[in-house]
Predict the 3D structure of the following.
Amino acid sequence: MQKALEEDRKIQDAKSVQETLDLMRGKLEGIVPEFELAIKAELAFKINQLKKGMNAVILAHNYMEPALFHSVADYSGDSLELARISAESDADIIVFCGVRFMAETAKILNPDRIVLLPAEKAGCSLAQSITGEDVRQLKNRYPGVPVVSYVNTYAEVKAETDYCCTSSNAAAVIRYLADKGHDKIIFLPDEYLAKNVAAETGIPILFPSRPDGSKGGDPENLKRVLIGWRGRCEVHEKFTVEDIENVRAQFTDTVILAHPECSPEVVKAADFSGSTKRMIEYVRNIDAPRYLLLTECSMGDNIAAENPDREMLRLCSVRCPHMNLITLEDTLKALREMRFRIELPDDIIKKARRSLDRMLQIK
Ligand code: SF4
């Protein structure tokens, strides 16, 4: 997890809208247009005043738009980092600037605290691809086989899961279970992440046939196998090998970093693959003439703001429509109106908590 950088902390401590604007301009000039900065500085100032008086903490995923990301977030990070910090927080109110499954994760880890999601409809194509009932059917079909679910799932799926994982620790969780002697592991729901983890761990993957008639392989015939699900991130599936070839043709010295939710072909063609956290560390620590991140475009802006000495190329048409719903306007309304509260049934919280606790224990 990353605590707000010193410059961002100064923005949060500004004593007036004008001071907020001056500090935001210093950080975001050239990244956020001037006319937007004036509006956003006023919103950020109001949010920062309000949250302090309410003992609220704002957690922002790396995919938040740069003005929000740098002006109001107490902590930023990927899903795993934000889950960890929410579990350690002593704030009365957690405002989750991310998507619903992330806010649900914070609620599962903090059942007695108020968790707010600023935009009610901020969903996720991956989380949407699978239900708790789908997992129950898989468990009936493969009794005794452990279920690993990517954290990008809703609480009802986590409640049916043995181990959650993120893109940071997915391979570690699979290796952990394989070392414990499990020959078959159900790994849900991201098809591409599962294929990339299969390549990394050397364990083959199969996608079984589905009750809807879609055909697949038969895991019974393999000694060691990951049993996958064909969910996709609607953002990362857009990147192609052709994108990489086009960029390399124009800028031969570009280092290309791909998120593991990209297709295996894209991951193979890239120079590096890792979670958003690992991409940020890579840009910070490894010198290169220029970088291209194959992930949600706001993250490129956020890294550029933090590393003005680094040249970032952008394929800026690729924004997550769900992350994009979280705005400073709605974050202010969330605090003022205490909306939209995440509520989950107690039994789901209890069962889902077990799989999350196991995830937090495996690095
Ligand atoms: S970027 Fe992809 S995985 Fe992340 S919230 Fe958007 S749709 Fe879901």
Q: What stands out?
A: Residues 236 and 262 are 5 Å apart (CA to CA). Residues 236-313 form a domain with the Rossmann fold fold (CATH 3.40.50.10800). The pocket of iron/sulfur cluster is lined by residues 99, 124-126, 152, 233-235, 296, 320, 322-323 (CB under 6 Å). The two ends are 13 Å apart (CA to CA).
